[in-house]
Amino acid sequence: MLKRISMLVVAGLAAATLTGCGGGGGGSGSGGGDGSITMGFSQVGAESGWRTANTKSVQESAKAAGITLKFSDAQQKQENQIKAIRSYIQQKVDVIAFSPVVESGWDTVLKEAKNAKIPVILTDRAVDSKDTSLYKTFLGSDFVEEGRKAGKWLVEQYKDAKDPVNIVELQGTTGSAPANDRKAGFQEVVGADPKFRIVASQTGDFTRAKGKEVMEAFLKANPDIDVLYAHNDDMGLGAIEAIEGAGKVPGKDIKIITVDAVHDGMQALADGKINYIVECSPLLGPQLMDLAKKVVKNESVPARVVTEETTFTQEQAKTALPSRKY
Ligand code: AHR
């Protein structure tokens, strides 16, 4: 029976592209008793510049904190994340951290971690589980607030406009916390004035390629687009290619708001192709390692740790770009 379980785990690992880093070995289950900590981390994928910067932050911070990191890339598939988490339970890691690709469907595997007495930290994205005892803390951005910030900038820009403002929206991965919350926060603000009309809204899965493809379709179906609201920089950058391909000028003919503030997005903002970016910081690694050390020692941690973030206009992007870390 044990052999069969091991084989299943091995099959799961192949799909999840598991790689160890930060010192090898691991799986000690020492609970920090001998001072060593092994963390199993299940990453969403490598869909965006934000995600690449987040992965780097987690890997570098684990190394700096002396935590052995077992890292897996789920290629944006929930089943791969579930397999990776099960393998970490099997390996008796000291703590599991993961960034859930979608919000729902985690209770079973989180209960398995709880039964195995392995603490879980949610990082970057939340789950919609009612049982909050299934994880110790959630470290990440307030995505609803990010959506509100995007909406407030738009309302201010068009405060004197009398004509309708036609908006198209590129949503993030369907069912993910940032897609749900950034949509809700934006809608809450612009929905208060009927002149703001969201004429089309579709997922671009947080990728540049999908952002371009969906924007091409938006442009064909909607001749009078005034504003694009993209849930991340990558989709916005793909959409810029589509807008230019249609003979329009991004940032002028169509105003563009995005979320993240990764280097390429900030460059497009400084170049005048994007009009406003709401920051979402991927540099969660140092705080994640601090929280991991505490939960392994069974010390109390806040149930929610919200990332500090700002916003950027075109002028602010020019100033910030030279010292931008990602
Ligand atoms: O969960 C954070 C989001 O995921 C980022 O805004 C996006 O770029 C990434 O893919």
Automatic annotation (TrEMBL):
Keyword presence, Transport: yes
Location of this chain's protein in the cell: Cell envelope
Periplasmic binding protein domain span: 41-299
Domain of life assignment: Bacteria
Alphabetical list of Pfam families matching this protein: Peripla_BP_4
Keywords: Signal, Sugar transport, Transport
Keyword Signal: yes
InterPro entries reported in the protein's UniProt record: Peripla_BP_I (IPR028082), SBP_2_dom (IPR025997)
Homology family: Belongs to the bacterial solute-binding protein 2 family.
Protein's recorded name: Simple sugar transport system substrate-binding protein
